[in-house]
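Appendix B, Record 12. Input sequence as logged:
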Amino acid sequence: MKKAILIALFAALVNLGNAQSLIGGDNILKTNMSANALQNYNITYERSINHFMSISASYSTMPKRNIPLQALAKQFIENPNIDFNNFKIANNAITFETRFYLGLQKMSGIYIAPYARFGNMEVDVPVNYKYTYTPAPVQGVTLPSQTVSTSANLNGTIRSQSVGAYFGMQYQLLTKLVLDFWIIGGHYGTSNGKLQAELPASTPAFIATPALNALKSAIDQTNANPFKLSTSVSGNSIITNTDGPWAGIRGVGITVGLRF
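Logged structural output:
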């Protein structure tokens, strides 16, 4: 009986070894097709450390586009002066991840993955404002005040650092093809940014001063709780500094990769 058990165990080990030779190497290069469909282009390199653990690095980038989910954005960024129809964002991020697999094969089966993400989000925020100025006298004649309705683009970069975890399943489809399904997870961290709107350098002082004060007043009406905004005038520019938490959901993603 013991001999039969040993023979069966030996046969199982041989089969496992053959399966490992068919699976491929210790590296996987993959991309998240779900994110690509949303113009969030990405690439991930995963490297096996042992049967139960791997490490990976990812890079993602999204070209500048109109802000998605405008109705939701208006709930988090309350300001009637912001033109959400022309509010644009772009972003890129680097993610470092460690995976712990619960299966018996390298980089296969259900996994739990803690990760750290470092992101940059570029924003272009059109702000409508109105100001009144008094033109310079002409030949000693005082001209009537003028009211101007215009807009300025407040643009810059918000940087974030966050950590989180998620779980999913990764399986071998063919000899070299891998399917990775992100189920659900999320991350949390901090962010800070600097946004700037600038008047032309040639703008005369009797226009620049009321224009900048009015623009600052329009931006100060922003309520983006829990983010804190502080706005100041510097020369011919308005500078808004942002500070606050950063959070995101990671999941329901389908990733396809090549193993080598």
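Residues 2-259 form one domain.
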